[in-house]
Amino acid sequence: MLAAFDEENKWPDKKVIRQTQLLAREFPLLELPCLAIAAIHAMRNDESVTDGELWMTQLWEKRKELFENYIADKYFSRMYPQVQLTRGISSPYPFNLTALGLLYSEVLQGTGKVKEAKEVVKSLTPTPFTAISLAELNIDLKLYDEAISATEDIEVESDTSGMLQIFRGITFTLQGFHDAAVEVFKTVIAKRSLSEEVLNRALVERAKCYQAMGKKAMAIKDLEKILAREGDYPEIKELISEVGKT
Predict the structure, then answer these.
(1) N or C: which end of the chain has fewer CB within 10 A?
(2) For residues 171 and 135, what is the distance between their CA atoms, to the nearest angstrom?
């Protein structure tokens, strides 16, 4: 079963999907665990993503049955599907109910079902990672007051708390409270112990805030800091060009 999961990507996704389907046909009791593994690999493959979305829905509907399966109980704690919640933050969980819920939430967001995605995350046991997911969903739903209240009184001590503060700053920017947003981003950027990905995200979002304030030079300065230390940061040159045109 662990070989079928293939966390190190030794097998092509299509091969994993095919092998798990064959295994499920031969051993019907393995149907749901095999479907879970197939779904994770389908979500990684553009050609199979539609199947993956369907399978994730089926898994969520049968989640109680899935995690009561003895195979899931035996092996899933040793499987770590990567769930990118937002740029700079990924879920650290083994394949448990929280990991499945976060995966399914990402599927729903990708199909435009943001309200449904929020309901899924709200049903999970609260953790810093579910809080990050909820913060982003509240912003997508323009529920700014909820996003602000959920990020109050948070000390920046880790990547997760730093990202929650970044979302707080994004919310202030969207509300037009630019000075408040800049102060929030400042507290994150000052915490040098955070990962480079989180610090860069804070710089990007502060640059967008400066752009909204009409402070083009300061926005470009923040973006060029990222370019200097991570030249392949996604879309950084495009962002600099965009700010320069405003």
Answers:
(1) C
(2) 9
Phi and psi at residue 89, to the nearest 5°: -135, 125
Look at 66-75, 116-125, 175-184, 193-202 and tell me which has the smallest mean pLDDT. Answer: 66-75
Question: Is 29 within a domain?
Answer: no
User: In this predicted model, what pLDDT tens digit does every residue of 57-92 receive, in sequence order?
Assistant: 999 999 999 999 988 888 898 888 888 999 889 999
The answer to the question of residue 116 being in a domain is no
Phi, psi of 220 (to 5 degrees): -65, -35
Cα–Cα distance, 231 to 179 (Å, whole number) = 29
CA distances from 218 to 149, 166, 200, 225 (A): 29, 18, 15, 11
Domain interval for residue 238: 142-246
